[in-house]
Amino acid sequence: MEVLLKVSAAADWTNRRSNKSLQLTPKRSSGSASVVQRTCSTLLRAAGQLNSMLGCRKEASISSLTLYTFGYWGWGNSTDKLVQAVDAAEDARGYRPPMFVDIRIRRSVRARGFNGNTFERLLGNDRYKWMDGLGNMAIVHGGPTRLKDLHQAAELLSLAVAESAKHRHVIIFCACEKPGSGGPDSCHRVLAAKQIQNIANRLGKSILITEWPGGEPKFEPTEIKLSAEDYAKAFRGSKWIPMGNQIALGKAAGMPWFSPLRLTSKGAAFSSMVALVGPCRFRKSAGYLPLLESIDTTKPDSYIRNRIIINRRENGYA
Ligand SMILES: [Zn+2]
Known about the structure:
Blueprint: E1 2-5, H1 34-38, H2 40-54, E2 66-71, H3 79-92, E3 99-102, H4 118-123, E4 128-130, H5 138-141, H6 151-164, E5 170-174, H7 188-202, E6 207-211, E7 222-225, H8 228-235, E8 240-242, H9 249-253, E9 259-264, E10 272-277, E11 281-283, E12 286-295, H10 301-315
Parallel strand pairs: 2-5, 2-6, 3-4, 3-5, 7-9
Antiparallel strand pairs: 1-6, 8-12, 9-10, 10-12, 11-12
């Protein structure tokens, strides 16, 4: 799930300041804004509120804005490591530690680090906000996935703009492992992202909404050397590749989904293998890259490239 609207610069506006002023006047609807039209009165009201909220920023130099979506699945027992990893990735890109916006409709969950206000207490008020209006009403009342309060999408957008002025991104999150590709089984954060995109569109605002950690994988595999034991485990189907000290935390945490690695080992009986991996995780206190798919190295480069593209599209990362 990646939404790109009117991108006018290669990087975030926070890093590359231009002389363009933020356009806050809602534009006339285009043919592509059918979803906006369906909820026209609601969104126009939200846009008006956002205009007034941002009125004092009309002189801000903005060309584009990035917002991340995220699912905490697998991080419930290591939230301190999660924050450390995310902050390292952002630091490597020149950003301050991000703001986390919780878009769950309920916070009573089994994941220890995300139950109740536990994650809020870890981060503090300056880096955490709960917007249950962007939560999924289906959790409470059943039925199709739908947001509780569409107005909070405008509030979220204004928060992302305000945080950008502080060189901080906003990450909206819920529990689901993958965003999904937009079908009925997709996580509701896809719907929230679309809603935010629609409002940005009405405001003529450039925004990139992408699943954390964003970025595009290089198609040429990066080589990583493993011990004979770890290589053998990966070859036999292990789902985890130990990071060791070969990859800096900021780089491993910011690894785009389905990045290709070429695994080698001096002592291995087999030559090498290509693994498609995701951003790092932690098991106990050791860092690992999740091995999402193994590829036989006899396959041509075009096969590796296709598997990256297809996997990213099917899982909602592109
Ligand atoms: Zn979800």
